[in-house]
Amino acid sequence: MREEELEKLRGVVRDCVSKHLYSSAIFFADKVAAFTNDPADIYMQAQALFLGRHYRRAFHLLNASKIVLRDLRFRYLAAKCLEELKEWDQCLSMLGEAKVDDDGNVSDTKDSNVMYLDKDCEDREINTSSAICFLRGKAYEALENRAQARLWYKAAIKADPLCYEALECLIENHMLTCEEEANLISSLQFGSEDGWLLSFYSCLIKKYDKENVVEAKFRDLENESCKNDESDSSFLRTLKTNTDLLACKAEYYHQCGEYQKCFELTYVLLEKDPFHLKSTLVHLAAAMELGHSNELYLMACHLVKDYPQKALSWFAVGCYYYCIKKYDQSRRYFSKATSLDGTFPPAWIGYGNAYAAQEEGDQAMSAYRTAARLFPGCHLPTLYIGMECMRTHSYKLAEQFFMQAKSVCPSDPLVYNELGVVAYHMKEYKRAVWWFEKTLALIPTDLSEMWEPTVVNLAHAYRKLKMYREAISYYEKALALSTRSVSTYAGLAYTYHLQEDFTTAISYYHKALWLKPDDQFCTEMLSWALVDESRRGVDPSLEFR
């Protein structure tokens, strides 16, 4: 058969693949490979077999070829076949021996003589070595060697910053701390035309910074667009409305405690793309915080119908039951989510929270410990373990866990708030003040009602230190955030009472009792304040005659 005819047949194979006619592609690729015995044609046949889900046959064809260990593409495709067959040890063996250091640098002396045969090489293809590193990471993760998986994912993204899947695994599975994520992004070698990708990646990592990271990255994109030609500027303007980037912004709103803004943004995103799973997860989290049980019910119904095998679907069902305070049912569905995907962090944390809501501390701690082991870059499980210890008055132990959470994520204000609460309970009021002030300094946006308890706690600590002016100042700030807090009115009343301003104290005790008429502390202290007020101006020598 002439070369022109063979090239036409290769074109037929490529067209069949593009139209997903895999049986036809396999038939014609087999004939081309039989005619030529060319390695590139054998690879094309193996590719067609792989796409047609004939993994054993594809592996046998590749393994039988004499160049499988010398051509990276052959080796990689053979390993992909073993991945689909879940034969992870053989998959690693096929990829060859290699070592990776803590920074993601690979040493692989045995592959120094490899070839790379590709007749259809494109200008911007993903580095095959990067894809191999990523596959090694997946194999190690499947074998539950998450430490090695983390190193190989880092190696993959460092070998080629375009290998987004490696970065996604590192971020979604919380394999890196905040600092490690930032260091990894800064170490990547982007091309001159990929400045936008650096900004995009920076938006994906944990967002606990003081400055609004997403908005800052938008400004970076705008500044970069000014340096480029008009077509690039148009591309960057379009990018600012991209669903992935806006989902990152919604995630940031959630972390800031701006749940209503988060919910409104994800609602718009899901109208535009109802099956964008990252937006769906953030939408569920915001709906949970806002108590929108109807929205959770509808979301759960749609997800279970569309994605019955995804952990996210059953997590949504668990969220609904948690929201309506049916914790037994919520536990059941969170557990189902973890059984479908053991590396889905929200399900483990939800599972622990459902136990904690019913004060079943041992089971809650077990779920949190599992999450802490699986997701070393996520500080929330350790934080929740500390909260459980504090609930049982194990303050020293709680403090240790909070400090551990702080080492993983040193910029989350919630961690500092809990350290302040522990210090307060241990009667270390000066330390409590320091931690609470640090909390308020780290809040990335203006104070919202979410942080009202922190402001009240700071006022309590100042009152304990007999710094009444500062205490009153913070109580009044707390009232500006929420006017329906009994503890704020009670604390303000008691502070004025200690200053012997009985009239003002009585006024605030009345306000507290208006909100909670059966409050024992306010009832008793109001009685004392009235007595103290009635005695004011009476000659002490005549008081008991």
Describe the structure.
The chain has 545 residues and is mainly α. 72% of the residues lie in helices and 1% in strands. It has 30 helices and two strands. Strands 1-2 form a two-stranded antiparallel ribbon. A hairpin with a 5-residue loop joins strand 1 and strand 2 (106-107). The chain is elongated and about 115 Å long. The N and C termini lie far apart (127 Å). Residues 115-122 and 538-545 have low confidence and may be disordered.
Features:
mainly alpha, 545 residues, disordered C terminus, 2 strands, single chain, 1% strand
SSE blueprint:
Layout: H1 3-18, H2 22-36, H3 39-51, H4 55-64, H5 72-84, H6 88-95, E1 99-100, E2 106-107, H7 128-142, H8 146-159, H9 164-172, H10 178-187, H11 195-204, H12 213-227, H13 230-239, H14 243-256, H15 259-272, H16 277-290, H17 293-306, H18 311-323, H19 327-340, H20 345-357, H21 361-374, H22 380-391, H23 395-408, H24 413-425, H25 429-442, H26 452-464, H27 468-481, H28 486-498, H29 502-515, H30 520-535
Antiparallel strand pairs: 1-2
Helix pairs in contact: 1-2, 2-3, 3-4, 3-5, 4-5, 5-6, 5-7, 6-7, 7-8, 8-9, 11-12, 12-13, 14-15, 14-16, 15-16, 16-17, 16-18, 17-18, 18-19, 18-20, 19-20, 20-21, 21-22, 22-23, 23-24, 24-25, 24-26, 25-26, 26-27, 26-28, 27-28, 28-29, 29-30
| C-alpha geometry | elongated
Quote the distance from N terminus to C terminus: 127 Å
Strand order of the largest sheet: 1-2
Overall SS class? mainly alpha
Helix-residue proportion: over 70%
Biggest sheet descriptor = 2 strands, antiparallel
Residue stretches low in confidence (pLDDT < 50, at least 5 long) are 115-122, 538-545
Q: Mean pLDDT, rounded to whole units? A: 87
**Radius of gyration from CA coordinates:** 30 Å
Number of separate strands = 2
Total helical elements:
30
What share of residues are in beta strands?
Answer: under 5%
- Described by its quaternary structure, the protein is single chain
TPR repeats: 311-344, 345-378, 413-446, 452-485, 486-519
Protein name: Anaphase-promoting complex subunit 6
Keywords: Cell cycle, Cell division, Mitosis, Repeat, TPR repeat, Ubl conjugation pathway
Pfam family, one: TPR_12
